[in-house]
């Protein structure tokens, strides 16, 4: 059978009521926490996936394709030097906890201080989180995750969109405003220049996120 999660369909094992076995995807629906995630994730037999949680509901999604993986890698290399100058650290996917029953695994993140081996990163330690948008994550990356990150008080949210068929690359850097919502701080398309002094100096053409 299949369980519908977020905007995709991920094959999972039959429910516990059919087999008599404990199935965390069924039994823990709506009550997931980091403690339960530490105990039951990853799900045995599942393909490699990202596990995120919104208000106790587990969201399972496949890992990114090569276009987004490369874009995230390039963002890491571009941000690492200026972020380190401020004492910050840049990371690929982390478990960023946004509440007692909320967490995300952003494609990249900048923390105010080194993680030093931590598995769960409090949202208060994140200066910036970034997502590379894919067709299956468009709603989550544009609406759901920014709303949760804003509520958690993360000052910056970066959205990256790349397409090789359209030769398109776009970066939108959002900053938390006075009313608790994100506002556009900087934005650029391939062929233009993204330039910002905050949260640290960046100046580059988004086309650099596309492999040549």
From TrEMBL:
Segments traversing the membrane: none
Record-level Gene Ontology MF annotations? endonuclease activity
Q: Which InterPro entries match?
A: Nuclease_put_TT1808, Restrct_endonuc-II-like, Uma2
**All copies of domain Putative restriction endonuclease, residue ranges:** 40-201
Q: Which UniProt keywords apply?
A: Endonuclease, Hydrolase, Nuclease
**Domain of life of the organism encoding this protein:** Bacteria
One Pfam short name: Uma2
What is the designated name of this protein? Endonuclease, Uma2 family (Restriction endonuclease fold)
Species whose genome carries this gene:
Actinopolyspora alba
Upper lineage is: Bacteria, Bacillati, Actinomycetota, Actinomycetes, Actinopolysporales
